[in-house]
């Protein structure tokens, strides 16, 4: 009898390396927003891959970064905590830049988690209680993304640099080296994604279907519409403004949906609205196209000073 595997995988990495693009590519649908601005993803988003032999829940996470705001701190905590409850870890770096301190931190956190998983597995074996159908040894899956933007040599150089970082981390730990598999990938074109998914499935334990077949995400509809509004805005505004924007649906009386756009300063309000309301109008049109037909979407802009720094604002906004 063929074994059915299922489990959870965290996708972690610095902001902007392409985590959300990868999750969308694997699920085969847009389940999480993407943009050229760093810090696009602000909370965990689950995207479900269904195959005849497996169901894998990919957990998209906020980019790990040096936080400058209370929001940034909560985003980092959300990304880090995703590592606690998963069966495998995908650590992503991008081939287009150097392997920086941010990448090192991501690789260190991911490797630490996989080591802990390996210790737990060997303890299980020692006490003779290896779970039925448990997967092979825990392995860190490292993705080098955006290979479409560099030549073959560039990819190879990058892989070598990442391997050096991991070797240095192993030395610091004085334990057995963490098992690693490397995947050069283009999340945009899909190149290299197949072998990565096969490797993920192979690491999943035998298990049940956690989500019904038709359900590809756990994101609530109202949250999704608010995120779509923010995504459209991120593609139209610049500088620090993307960080200052928060969106939330305040009324959902289908087909009437009201979404509030928070900014931090009066001057930002004007930019979001645009000359004669043009930006807001464009955003509304673009989001409606992605909603079920007949939606009547109302957008409002409101100033809430320093919401990114205020714990009460963050609580209310659901971070
Ligand atoms: N050329 C190229 N661009 C990519 C690739 N993957 C992602 N991108 C682009 O990189 C940018 C960031 O992608 P996201 O998927 O939003 O990155 P992220 O890691 O989720 O970012 P945060 O949510 O901010 O942490 C977007 O403009 C993507 O289109 C890739 O394989 N090749
Ligand atoms: Mg993202």
Give a structural overview.
This protein is an alpha/beta fold and 319 residues long. It has 10 helices and 9 strands. Strand 5, helix 4 (152-173) and strand 6 (180-184) form a beta-alpha-beta unit. The mean pLDDT is 95. The strands form 2 sheets. Strands 2-3-1-4-5-6 form a 6-stranded mixed β-sheet, with helices on both faces. It folds into 2 domains: 5-203, Rossmann fold; 221-317, GMP Synthetase, Chain A, domain 3 (2-Layer Sandwich), CATH 3.30.300.20. Helix content is 39%, strand content 20%. The structure holds guanosine-5'-triphosphate and magnesium ion.
Q: What is the highest CATH level, the class of the largest domain? A: Alpha Beta
- How many separate helices? 10
What is the CATH homologous superfamily assignment of the largest domain? P-loop containing nucleotide triphosphate hydrolases
Q: Largest sheet, described in full?
A: 6 strands, mixed
End-to-end separation in angstroms reads 44 Å
The dominant shape is globular
Order of helices and strands: EHEEHEHEHEHHHEEHHEH
CATH topology of the largest domain: Rossmann fold
Cα radius of gyration in angstroms: 21 Å
CATH architecture annotation of the largest domain: 3-Layer(aba) Sandwich
> What's the β-strand tally?
9
Query: What class, by secondary structure content?
Result: alpha/beta
Query: Regions with pLDDT < 50 over 5+ consecutive residues?
Result: none
Overall mean pLDDT score? Answer: 95
The helicity comes to 25-40%
Strand ordering within the main sheet? 2-3-1-4-5-6
Strand proportion, as a percent range, falls in 15-25%
Q: Give a list of the ligands.
A: guanosine-5'-triphosphate, magnesium ion
């Amino acid at each position: 009898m063929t074994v059915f595997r299922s489990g959870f995988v965290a996708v972690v990495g610095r902001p902007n390396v392409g985590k959300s693009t990868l999750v969308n590519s694997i699920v085969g649908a847009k389940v999480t927003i993407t943009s050229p601005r760093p810090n696009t993803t602000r909370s965990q988003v689950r995207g479900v891959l269904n195959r005849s032999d497996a169901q894998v829940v990919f957990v998209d996470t906020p980019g790990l970064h040096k936080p400058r705001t209370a929001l940034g701190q909560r985003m980092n905590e959300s990304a880090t905590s995703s590592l606690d409850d998963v069966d495998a870890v995908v650590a992503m770096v991008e081939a287009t830049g150097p392997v920086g301190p941010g990448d090192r931190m991501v690789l260190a956190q991911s490797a630490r988690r996989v080591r802990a998983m390996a210790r737990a597995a060997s303890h299980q074996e020692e006490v003779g209680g290896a779970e039925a159908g448990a997967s092979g040894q825990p392995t860190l899956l490292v993705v080098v993304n955006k290979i479409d933007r560099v030549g073959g040599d560039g990819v190879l150089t990058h892989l070598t640099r990442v391997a050096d970082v991991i070797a240095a981390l192993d030395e610091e730990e004085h334990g057995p080296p963490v098992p690693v598999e490397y995947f050069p990938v283009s999340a945009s074109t899909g190149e290299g994604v197949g072998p990565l998914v096969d490797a993920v499935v192979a690491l999943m334990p035998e298990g049940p279907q956690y989500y019904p077949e038709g359900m590809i995400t756990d994101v609530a509809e109202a949250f999704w519409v608010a995120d779509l509004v923010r995504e459209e805005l991120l593609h139209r505004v610049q500088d620090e403004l993307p960080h200052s924007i928060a969106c939330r649906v305040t009324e959902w009386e289908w087909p009437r949906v009201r979404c509030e756009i928070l900014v931090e300063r009066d001057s930002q309000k004007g930019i979001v609205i645009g000359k004669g309301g043009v930006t807001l109008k464009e955003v509304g049109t673009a989001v409606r196209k992605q909603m079920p037909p007949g939606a009547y979407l109302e957008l409002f802009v409101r100033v809430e000073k320093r919401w990114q720094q205020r714990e009460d604002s963050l609580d209310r906004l659901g971070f």
